[in-house]
């Protein structure tokens, strides 16, 4: 199929906003959702920092992932204008990041050494596809269900897989997304890896591209994109955020957590993503970087961008939102891809907060502290994940008929 793929709906829920537009307004303003965490089993209160979504109503199994995923999905579908009752739902795919079952409930059962109380079906306990399957079941979708678990690149790869499913004529529409709720095991793991930031002021802890950076903070939330075949979107008069031009997936085989010192795998990834999107380096105006705030990632990412873009790197705007939203791990790259689409829509490059002392090794224009009005036609999202997963996706601003316009800020209640 030689048909273009466009984004017609976006749903988001994060620590700084309960929906797409409130999250975007907070990101543009540089607002921060990081605080000290308490009540994390096995870890002293106040030891860890995180950007959490407050007021989430747990499902009957004590799980936070499903309510967050469902909220983002409902917003995305409503935003797209799709009426699921009037379309062939066998032509609607779901491509979602994997996450475990209701582990808080299971931990309680094991701790108390009892099997009584509320019983949970085995498939909810064991299948990592349980949350995306529940989302698809709730919406009555019968198309392909694609699930991947690729650490911090999960959301980007889910989006890539959704795009390919449309291009391969497996479906006409796809919901692409991922979710991340904080969990004691995940928190303890990152703490023991010594990659988490620390500071007396939680809001100032994560400092991407800064000379004084010392790690990331954890975050939670979800994002879902409605991807659609352009001909189908036009046929129903849908409004469009951006065109998903293409991308590339590669791997870095250096180490499960370490990155190649010469940035060669990332350079190759970015070059391939540009070529597959029919773009030259000078066509990209904005890059939403992985930008974790770790000493290794930020310097390596800068080197890779400079090597791939050459002289055009000097004209790039590059920023990251992990200091605002936390590192959403499973959902990070799709939340940040949604932010990239909104940046294209509004002609606004969001800031990198807490960047007060730029590291000389990170010598790109990383938009410190204050965002910038700038109209750019093309943007790219980069994801660099533990396990060696690399992903890059390129977007084009939609300026043809049916283009989205910047709406007034609006706050919606989270879907039940």
Explain what the structure shows.
With 416 residues, the protein is of the alpha/beta class. It has one domain: Thiolase/Chalcone synthase (Peroxisomal Thiolase, Chain A, domain 1, 3-Layer(aba) Sandwich), CATH 3.40.47. 31% of the residues lie in helices and 19% in strands. It is built from 12 helices and 15 strands. The strands form 3 sheets. The chain has a 10-stranded mixed sheet with strand order 5-4-6-8-1-9-15-14-10-11, sandwiched between helices. The radius of gyration is 20 Å and the shape is globular.
Pairing-aware structural class of the strands and helices?
A: alpha/beta
Quaternary organization? single chain
Q: State the end-to-end CA separation.
A: 38 Å
Widest sheet: strand ordering:
5-4-6-8-1-9-15-14-10-11
Average pLDDT figure? 88
Count of helical segments? 12
**CATH topology (fold) name:** Peroxisomal Thiolase, Chain A, domain 1
Q: CATH H level: which superfamily?
A: Thiolase/Chalcone synthase
Poorly predicted residue ranges: 408-416
Outline of this structure?
The relative contact order is 0.19. The C terminus is likely disordered. By secondary structure, the protein is α/β, with parallel strands linked by helices.
Distinctive features:
416 residues; alpha/beta; Peroxisomal Thiolase, Chain A, domain 1; 10-stranded mixed sheet; 3-stranded mixed sheet; 31% helix; globular
Topology:
Blueprint: E1 5-13, H1 20-29, E2 35-36, E3 49-51, H2 65-80, E4 92-97, H3 103-111, H4 122-126, H5 130-139, E5 145-148, H6 154-167, E6 173-180, H7 184-193, E7 218-219, E8 221-229, H8 230-235, E9 242-251, H9 264-276, E10 284-288, H10 295-309, E11 317-319, H11 322-325, H12 332-346, E12 348-349, E13 372-373, E14 378-384, E15 389-397
Parallel strand pairs: 3-7, 4-5, 4-6, 10-11, 10-14
Antiparallel strand pairs: 1-8, 1-9, 2-3, 6-8, 9-15, 12-13, 14-15
Helix pairs in contact: 2-5, 6-12, 9-10
């Amino acid at each position: 199929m030689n048909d273009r793929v466009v984004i017609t709906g976006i749903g988001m829920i994060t620590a700084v906003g309960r929906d797409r537009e409130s999250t975007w307004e907070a990101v543009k303003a540089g607002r921060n959702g990081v605080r000290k965490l308490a009540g994390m089993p096995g870890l002293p209160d106040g030891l860890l920092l995180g950007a959490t979504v407050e007021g989430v109503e747990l499902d009957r199994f004590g799980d936070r992932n499903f309510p967050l995923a469902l909220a983002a999905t409902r917003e995305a579908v409503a935003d797209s204008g799709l009426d699921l009752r009037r379309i062939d739902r066998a032509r609607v795919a779901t491509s979602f990041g994997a996450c475990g079952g209701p582990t808080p409930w299971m931990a309680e059962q094991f701790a108390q050494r009892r099997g009584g109380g509320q019983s949970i079906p085995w498939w909810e306990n064991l299948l990592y596809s349980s949350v995306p399957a529940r989302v698809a079941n709730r919406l009555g979708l019968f198309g392909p269900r694609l699930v991947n678990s690729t650490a911090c690149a999960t959301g980007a790869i889910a989006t890539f897989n959704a795009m390919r499913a449309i291009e391969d004529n497996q479906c006409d529409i796809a919901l692409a997304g991922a979710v991340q709720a904080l969990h004691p095991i995940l928190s303890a793991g990152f703490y023991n890896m010594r990659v988490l930031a620390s500071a007396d002021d939680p809001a100032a802890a994560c400092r991407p591209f800064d000379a004084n950076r010392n790690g990331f903070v954890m975050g939670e939330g979800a994002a879902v994109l409605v991807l659609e075949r352009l001909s189908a979107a036009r046929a129903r008069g849908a409004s469009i955020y951006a065109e998903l031009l293409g991308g590339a997936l590669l791997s870095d085989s250096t180490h499960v957590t370490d990155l190649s010192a010469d940035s060669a795998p990332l350079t190759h990834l970015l070059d391939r993503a540009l070529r597959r999107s029919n773009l030259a380096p000078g066509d990209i105006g904005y890059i939403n970087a992985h930008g974790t705030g770790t000493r290794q990632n930020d310097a390596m990412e800068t080197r890779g961008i400079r090597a791939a873009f050459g002289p055009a790197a000097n004209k790039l705007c590059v920023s990251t939102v992990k200091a605002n939203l936390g590192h959403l791990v499973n959902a990070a790259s799709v939340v940040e891809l949604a932010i990239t689409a909104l940046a294209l829509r509004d002609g606004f490059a969001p800031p990198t907060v807490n960047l007060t002392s730029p590291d000389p090794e990170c010598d790109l224009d990383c938009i410190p502290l204050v965002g910038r009005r700038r109209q750019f036609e093309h943007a790219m999202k980069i994801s660099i994940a533990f396990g060696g997963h690399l992903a890059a996706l390129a977007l084009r601003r939609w300026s043809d008929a049916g283009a989205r316009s910047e709406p007034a800020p609006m706050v919606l209640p989270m879907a039940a």
